[in-house]
Amino acid sequence: MVTVAAADPPVDPAELLTLARDVVARAAELVTAARADALGQVSTKSTPTDPVTAADRAAERFVVDAILAARPADGVLGEEGAERPGTSGVRWVLDPIDGTVNFLYGIPAYAVSLAAEVDGVTVAGVVRNVVTGEEWSATRGGGAYRGETRLRGSACTRLDRALVGTGFGYDADRRRQQARVLAEVLPVVRDIRRIGSAALDLCGAAEGRLDAYYERGLSPWDLAAGELVAAEAGLLVTGLRGRPPGEAMTVAAPPALHAPLHELLVALDADEAG
């Protein structure tokens, strides 16, 4: 008789989300407690305008330790350097403080963002505004929520009536190119908002606080949880010219707005090098 080993049980996205929500809530408390010391513990990363604080690093260590204590076979990828392959097929993608400049200046728009991937596909995600306590979450196929409220994006159908969010990189050449694109986008939309946190922008678009959002230069930790929240709220989240969202460009908008915004950004070569 041939004995066949039992397959590992499928991973339940709802269980991953429950863990993520608990860990993120506790990490947000840590970030709040660290705020008073933030200005004295700042260094920079990619450019002199790209800050990282001791709170970023402490929050990342906390989240990684908490996740691995609960699920020791999982992998992790964090903005501040945490990287571990894991053996379970689950990888956690973390931004411990998305909106570090806001954190430094006391602007109440910075978040802890955590997503869980299974075999490379994001299946659960949570974003928590540290200051307000607002929490956005989603599971793949299970919808997106702020707290207990189901999210369905904006009902806006005209680009000239759309409030559009965006953001800027830290590199001067990239900012110059982004400013060129913005100068052409601004006259054809209702207005622009630059909140300073990609995760909060994506969740804002999912909720309808923004009608649409675009940005060049997002890393996996900027995108993972917020992308799922936006997509589960019914938004199209893509790159340009048939590409997936990511470093070159991310566009998140309801279907009625996505096409004209996408076409405008393509015409402006908004994903070109810079």
Note down, in words, how this protein is organized.
The chain is an alpha+beta fold. The protein folds into 2 domains: 13-150, 2-Layer Sandwich (Fructose-1,6-Bisphosphatase, Chain A, domain 1), CATH 3.30.540; 159-267, D-Maltodextrin-Binding Protein, domain 2 (3-Layer(aba) Sandwich). It contains 7 helices and 15 strands. It has helices spanning 13-34, 54-70, 100-105, 172-185, 198-207, 220-232, 255-267; strands spanning 42-44, 51-53, 75-78, 83-84, 90-98, 111-118, 121-129, 135-139, 143-146, 149-150, 163-165, 191-193, 212-215, 236-238, 250-253. The strands form 3 sheets. It has an 8-stranded mixed beta sheet with strand order 4-3-5-6-7-8-9-10, sandwiched between helices. A hairpin with a 5-residue loop joins β7 (121-129) and β8 (135-139). The longest helix has 22 residues, at 13-34. The chain is globular. The protein starts with 12 loop residues before the first helix and ends in a 7-residue tail after the last helix.
Strand order of the largest sheet: 4-3-5-6-7-8-9-10
Q: Total strand count, please?
A: 15
By helix and strand content, what is the structural category?
alpha+beta
Helix content: 25-40%
* Low-confidence blocks of residues: 1-7
Per CATH, the superfamily of the largest domain is Fructose-1,6-Bisphosphatase, subunit A, domain 1
Distance linking N and C termini: 63 Å
- So what's the CATH class of the largest domain? Alpha Beta
What percentage of amino acids are in beta strands? 15-25%
Q: What is the residue-averaged pLDDT? A: 92
Radius of gyration, CA atoms, in whole angstroms: 19 Å
Would you tell me which CATH topology of the largest domain applies? Fructose-1,6-Bisphosphatase, Chain A, domain 1
**Shape call:** globular
Number of domains: 2
Can you name the CATH architecture of the largest domain? 2-Layer Sandwich
**Count of DSSP-assigned helices:** 7
The description of the largest β-sheet is: 8 strands, mixed
Q: Write down the secondary-structure element order.
A: HEEHEEEHEEEEEEHEHEHEEH
